[in-house]
Amino acid sequence: MKSDMEELMPRLLPVDLGENTGEFSLTGPPRNPQEYLRQVHLEASLCPDVVVAEIDPKKLKKKQTVNVSVAGCPAAPVGFSPSLSWQQQQVCNFSDMRQRITKNRIHWRNQTLDENVTMPKVTDEDGWRRFCLGETVHLETSSCHTEAETGPGIDYNKVGFPPFLTIVSRLNQTTVLTVLEILIGWFEEHAFVPQLGLWMYSLLACLEKPLLPEAHSSIRQLARRCAQLRSTLESEMDETLPALNLLICLVARLYFEQNDLADQPEDESQD
Questions:
Q1: In the chain, which residues have pLDDT < 70?
Q2: Residue 270 domain-assigned?
Q3: Which GO terms fall under biological process for this protein (predicted)?
């Protein structure tokens, strides 16, 4: 007599069990396809229709927690928020840049790097901070900065390598996200510097959509840090304000669609 499960689930591979089913052993190898199917059927018949897992309550005491930040950006001080038209123009420019990078990525990737360019390994956090920001910023020294400016040429080891297309075109998505996280982590504890802005813009331009969950978290962290720093500025003429507004705009307003972080323009007629 068929079990309830057999009645509900039609057999996809009918098997002629014959009269000597009991002679089969589950330990020996099948001699032909028919014996294989009969062994499978016999194994299935020995399994209970319902299996109840035995769970040790003691193992459930340790709670699994996931830290998810849902906080938005601090509101911009009066007079510090860009107009919607300005934000839309920046997004348009950014979109064009992304398309150019994508279109010419193979070309730039095949170009030979200068002899002084040694890219760090993906996991070398300190190496990437030095590479992108330079020893002057990374080590927070001033003497190196003066020597670099007065020397016959630019010492990129001291002032940081700009995000040349020959460099960023070589970064795969894992490296792009890793470097982004490294620099955002540095930014959490330091002031904004021009080298950081250049790299943030370029890495965001190389970040492919749809975004991975880790990328969502990182760029939201970036926008919140920019907004937090902006809230401490004393003047609308501060030279870091446009860069902070730009990064917030790209992450929040339109392109990466983190709309809850977006600035609400005070006056749409502003430039």
A1: 1-28, 34, 41, 44-72, 141-153, 253-271
A2: no
A3: spliceosomal complex assembly; spliceosomal snRNP assembly
